[in-house]
Amino acid sequence: MAWDRQLGKWAAQLRPQIAVPARLALWDGREFDIGHQGEPRVTLRANDASALACLLRPSLDRLGEAYVHGALDIEGRISDVIELAFGLARSTHDRLGQLGSALRLFRHNRQRDAQAIAYHYDVSDDFYATWLDPEMVYSCAYFECGDEDLACAQRQKIDHILTKLRLSEGQTLLDIGCGWGALVMRAAEHYGARCVGVTLSRNQYERARARVQAAGLADRVEIRLQDYRDIEGHFDRISSVGMFEHVGLKQLPAYFGRINALLADDGLALNHGITTSDPASRDTPFGAGSFIDRYVFPGGELPHLSLALRAVQQGGLEVIDVENLRRHYARTLTLWSQNFEQQHETIRGLVSDANFRIWRVYLIGCAHAFEHDLVSIYQILCHKAGRRAEQIDWSRRYMYAGRA
């Protein structure tokens, strides 16, 4: 009876705050309607009393943990589920006030970074292949019109980067965090560049090398299992896509300093990375950052754009162009989530139930976060600081020449 009274009061408080019609179903058959009136679009099934504790004081990490461990099950469209979860977490924030998201600082070194990358990327190549595009590009796509399919948008993203870099035949390109090799392969095959791609993921390294061999590009593309801090030499162009999120906030100046040291005097570098919308570079709110750190990206730290730009300058580079791709990543993640839902039976056969649940809510949760400006993503184009003004382009026209 105590639970009945407490849950009834909780449900009544939530109704005006939650936009999604939803229902809580307990293990003993009792039900409570929450959210706006109407036929429930989401049903939360509490399988034991531990789920109630997280529901009565919800945050995204507590709700996510209950779902991952099976204390809580969900029914309904995954996009509605995430909207409900954010609504529940926000209701706690509104009632209790934001206690503040701690600035987590992971102790980054070669061993810890390699372990974190392996945890995230070495789940299974077949797992990623079920919901990524055919080239397995695991980063924000680029939609010139908005109606492109995922494969087209990912190819456009790679071309957008290589066009910004003014990559031309015979130049050398270093791709830090090369994934499964799609960017370096296109740079070699369609732009005539000589490329080096580095990754800390053994799965990515082995598959990327096999793809390079199969495409007949081994004379122009080298894939290395290597830490960016151990790279030597000089390169005409440097790209880094989805990498600096793993570097650590304190290490960002040194990271950009390393790019500076590897870049030719007249070279260009482009960093494509996720940022937080919090000016103090704290965790993503409502417990989302804690969930991601625990279950998805150990040691991941997102800087605010202002911190990233300062680190670029501290690394001896000058920023010459910045582009916000937040809308593009919201769309990319929505398409990934749709693929994930369509392939859910296949995916369940590839990973554990916990991993299935983690990635299911992670993908659509991130789409929601990008849609609502909790996180963003920027491409930052730079060159060595101190160059003459005449070496900077008059306009950005060259980046879009010949495009619709």
From TrEMBL:
CDD domains named among the record's database cross-references: AdoMet_MTases (cd02440)
- The organism of origin for this protein: Uliginosibacterium flavum
Q: Which EC class, in a word?
A: transferase
Q: What is this protein called?
A: Cyclopropane-fatty-acyl-phospholipid synthase family protein
User: Its Enzyme Commission number?
Assistant: 2.1.1.-
Q: Which family does it belong to?
A: Belongs to the CFA/CMAS family.
**One Pfam family this chain carries?**
CMAS
A GO molecular-function descriptor = methyltransferase activity
Q: Which domain of life is it from?
A: Bacteria
Extract one GO BP annotation from the record.
Answer: methylation
State the InterPro entries in the record.
CFA/CMAS, CMAS, DUF7884, SAM-dependent_MTases_sf
Q: Which UniProt keywords apply?
A: Lipid metabolism, Methyltransferase, S-adenosyl-L-methionine, Transferase
